[in-house]
Design a protein that fits this description.
single chain; alpha/beta; D-Maltodextrin-Binding Protein, domain 2; 2 domains; four-stranded mixed beta sheet; 13 helices; 31% helix
């Protein structure tokens, strides 16, 4: 979370920006606007900080004691939070926070959703370099990292707050890319809690069922793909095999062909120090030069990524859904049991692989009879690496691996 000043007319107003919601720290936002409090515990509005049973019930939820010393400390304090996407999960969390601290957090949503949030942020926080801009209505924001660039000067630096609370925040446990995305001029201007990436899931029951046939036909073990190229090959080979026991041929891996999935194929090729495919310096962009707009796609690395993505889509659910007038979607394809695997963002992947998940195949669309004792039908893995550019054995130290361990 971060704060800023929005010009001379509202310099006393502090603003908070959340890369994503961190409700536990909103107490600091409320505290930042409170008058000085006396040290005595006073019963206000029926909230008694001396009531041990009440405080334990409402301030020690979810196995954390972070809010325990904030019981009834912010009664009648109001905070306005601006968000871009409605989520029902906010309601119980805000209610829990109110019962513990006494603070009232009012959440408002931008009309127009995600597409309108950046402009809404500029209107309220103000634009860098313009001290007269900004309305100063909201105290905190749920934002995406790219929206911070034009308003960070108006957001409070959270660096000192992080120092004081790092035993809870553990800022260095956050991945470096996310930390960098919210840091400007040597100060942390927002608190990242969530970062989306692309992960891979596969059906353990499918892999078990087809293991013998796969070995017989291709002379290789059916194992979890470690490179993008291996994932594409496995998807192609499993395409047309029966994955749900209905006797009909099914698909390879499933996906929703969004631009970010295509970029997940392209970026590893152009980010890796390649030996044969390094023909273009991408500068700050992977598709065109940011200064001259010259295309950067005419190189072996980009061509290889396009080829692999094209092959992957051809072996996926798109081969059936698109010709039949349906949206090619992992969310509708995976529950049918016709997918050997899937690539997805992590939140959706959980709902694809969790038993009873919103997009998970029910037992009747799986082949759990092929699972060994203790195995689970849906497995999650990191997204594979760039094909053929993994370090060769002579550049690794495999001698330090324990039995069964993989180097990458």
């Amino acid at each position: 979370m971060t704060s800023r000043t929005s010009g001379a007319t509202s310099s006393s107003v502090r603003r908070w920006s959340l890369f994503t919601a961190l409700i536990l720290l909103l107490s600091n936002s409320a505290y930042a606007q409170e008058p000085d409090q006396c040290t005595e515990n006073i019963v206000v509005g029926g909230c008694d900080p001396n009531d041990e049973e009440y405080c334990k019930q409402h301030c020690e939820l979810f196995g954390t004691t972070y809010l325990r010393d904030k019981c009834c400390k912010h009664v009648a304090i109001n905070t306005n939070l601006l968000a871009f996407e409605e989520a029902d999960l906010w309601k119980p969390r805000l209610a829990n926070f109110h019962k513990c601290t006494g603070a009232n957090i009012h959440i408002a949503y931008v009309e127009g959703g995600e597409d309108a949030m950046e402009d809404a942020l500029k209107f309220d926080v103000g634009v860098n370099g313009d001290p007269t801009s900004g309305q100063g209505i909201y105290d905190a924001y749920i934002v995406q990292a790219p929206w911070l660039t034009s308003v960070f000067e108006g957001l409070e630096s959270l660096s000192e707050r992080i120092k004081l609370n790092d035993n809870v925040i553990r800022f260095n446990d956050i991945n470096q890319a996310s930390r960098s995305a919210v840091s400007f001029d040597g100060q942390v201007r927002a608190l990242p809690l969530d970062a989306d990436y692309i992960a891979m899931g596969y059906r353990q029951d499918v892999f078990n069922k087809h293991a013998s046939r796969y070995l017989e036909e291709f002379g290789e073990e059916l194992t979890v793909p470690r490179t993008i190229e291996e994932m594409v090959i496995i998807s192609e080979r499993l395409n047309g095999w029966d994955h749900n026991g209905d006797g009909e041929g099914d698909w390879g891996f499933c996906l929703t062909p969004q631009t970010n999935y295509f970029q997940a194929f392209v970026a590893p090729h152009l980010q890796t120090q390649l030996k044969d495919d390094k023909d273009a310096d991408t500068g700050q962009n992977i598709f065109f030069d940011v200064d001259t707009f010259e295309p950067l796609i005419y190189n072996d690395g980009f061509r290889k990524a396009v080829e692999l993505y094209w092959r992957f889509v051809k072996s996926s659910n798109c081969q059936y859904q698109t010709p039949n007038g349906q949206k090619c979607s992992r969310k509708t394809a995976f529950p049918t049991g016709r997918c050997a695997g899937v690539i997805s963002m992590p939140g959706t992947l959980t709902n694809l692989l969790r038993e009873g998940g919103k997009y998970a195949p029910p037992p009747e669309n799986r082949m759990d009879e092929f699972l060994e004792e203790g195995q689970y039908w849906g497995r999650r893995e990191v997204f594979p690496a760039a094909p053929k550019y993994a370090p060769p054995p002579e550049n690794r130290m495999d001698e330090f691996l324990e039995e069964g361990q993989y180097w990458g």
